[in-house]
Amino acid sequence: MNHLLDRTRRHAVKSARIVGPPTLLTLRRWALAAVVVNIGITVTGAAVRVSGSGLGCPTWPRCTPESFTPVAHAEISPVNMAIEFGNRMLTFLVLAVGVACLIAALRLLPARRPDLVRLAWLQPIGVAFQGLWGGLVVRSALNPVTVSVHFLVSVGMIAAAYALYARARQGENRDRSEGGSRQPVHRHVRTLAFALVAAVFVLLVVGVVVTGTGPHSGDEMASRFGFDIETVARIHADVAYVVVGLTFALAFALHITDAPGYARRAAWTLLAVEAAQGVVGYVQYFLGVPAALVNLHVLGATLVWLCALRVLFATGPRGPRDLPEAVAGDRDAVRV
Question: What is the dihedral angle through the alpha carbons of 50, 53, 58, 64, rounded to the nearest 10 degrees?
């Protein structure tokens, strides 16, 4: 009986941490959840496209002209309709997590931090924008420009969610004399990290151009970019080589300057993810871009972006080891 009471008490304490006044640890968990769900909806959005389900729900905000939910339609496959509608429903999950991030930031104890509140606001605002833009994507019959922007906004949402997570990990230390704002790496190495993130973003932009030129349009009615697919694919590969080169240069610079271990690990992890992404990219190219590998490549793209952001924050002025004493006890609760 006592054992059962102890277990009940432990579960009650955990629940209170979730629904009660949030701490930095609570906010970090919600921010990490926001990263996961934003990556998830990005990948499922790609699945909608490669499965030819982009117009499975041919209208917006309704699924069909008669209904908000899928109904039998002579001209639309029920499978395609279910895939597209399922992706739309995931938007509400992303919104719920985004609202939870905002509430946690607004109610943060022991004191609200304006920088975290600003970052948290980007989640529900971004979801609202994505929902409206998704309507434009449908109404434009999957125009490649609107589809590309849809993906790039998701990339921005992932960045905002990770920034919220990383900033919440840093805690708050206003006293520079305590080392809370110490630069963990040389300023030129930090500049290299910014250049790397910029190069990864360019890689993503070129990637959506390749996608908008390639065969997986999302629907037979969708238009395509008028570029030569071989040319844009080669440009994409060239930018990827630049990204890999910058990553190796950064990892080497962090090593020879004796940067903190977490920064060096972040750089080498990014390099490993890039290598795996490169293998998937070349395999899908030589196999004629099969749908499954295209979807895997989109997942890889989001992971490369996430790891690049991790490198940027790991080389920032307030890394994980610079947490104030007040929150040092729980800094290992959620690892990057």
Answer: -160
